[in-house]
Design a protein that fits this description.
41% of the residues lie in helices and 13% in strands. The protein has 238 residues and is α+β, with helices and mostly antiparallel strands. It has a four-stranded antiparallel beta sheet, with helices on one face. The N terminus is likely disordered.
């Protein structure tokens, strides 16, 4: 494992159950690149091989032996492979700025921590969501996820503009990005369905994909639900 005393971004997820069982996961990230600092599984299961139910849009070359996301998720999947989606759990999340706690279902808590692993594991498609990890919000609602996703994308366009690159202010490419992310989620679902005896792992992915669908749907509706709260900005800026 990396030196935990180093300058890292640290999240800790604790799943606490009524039978006094606790499952704890420490996620360490590079403070600037947000890349996962994680010792790989020395005995990765077969379903982590790149060619095992490989995502239809996977851009990785045949020289890559393991799917980087599957490899980093493998220990998490192993811990919950006999868990049921709607089992109740008390989840405590220690983030750099504050601590969150909520009674929730295993699938919702698991989806939250899975989301961190997935976008920090060097998947060329999922990495586009990596900036959101710096402002990670556990137990986010659909509307909160939509707002964070769109805000992240527009900030990215601002920095592209500052660098003299083409900025997508109309967010046309964001819909395309989430279409590609949905394909990755489907590919990972196919992997995890072969790795788990129960449904918590696969349904956690369904939860994550639902948030992606919410972003696409909101963009299709021109963000009507969110736009109403910005009325104080309308008609007064020159």
């Amino acid at each position: 494992m990396p030196d935990q005393s180093a300058n890292v971004l640290r999240f800790v997820y604790k799943f606490q159950f009524d039978d006094d069982v606790e499952k704890k996961f420490e996620v360490l990230l590079h403070p600037e690149t947000l890349e996962l600092l994680h010792s790989p599984n020395p005995n990765p299961p077969p379903w982590t091989k790149l060619k095992f139910n490989q995502c239809e849009n996977c851009p990785l070359s045949d020289s890559v032996e393991y799917c980087p996301v599957a490899l980093n998720l493998s220990h998490l999947v192993e811990e919950f492979k006999f868990s049921t989606s709607h089992d109740k759990t008390w989840v405590v999340v220690e983030a750099p700025e504050r601590t969150y706690a909520q009674e929730t279902s295993v699938q919702d808590g698991l989806g939250s921590v899975m989301g961190i692993y997935m976008v920090t594991s060097n998947c060329p498609i999922l990495d586009n969501l990596r900036p959101m990890v710096r402002f990670h919000l556990p137990f986010a609602s659909a509307i909160e996820s939509v707002y964070r996703s769109i805000s992240m994308y527009l900030v990215a366009q601002y920095f592209r503009f500052r660098r003299g690159e083409t900025a997508d202010w109309s967010m046309e490419k964001l819909t395309d990005l989430y279409k590609e992310i949905s394909k990755v989620n489907k590919g990972l679902w196919n992997r995890l369905s072969k790795a788990s005896g129960y449904d918590a792992n696969v349904n956690a992915l369904i939860v994550l994909n639902t948030f992606g669908d919410a972003v696409r749907f909101s963009l299709k509706k021109d963000l009507d639900d969110i736009g109403k709260v910005f009325s104080s900005y309308f008609g007064r800026q020159k």
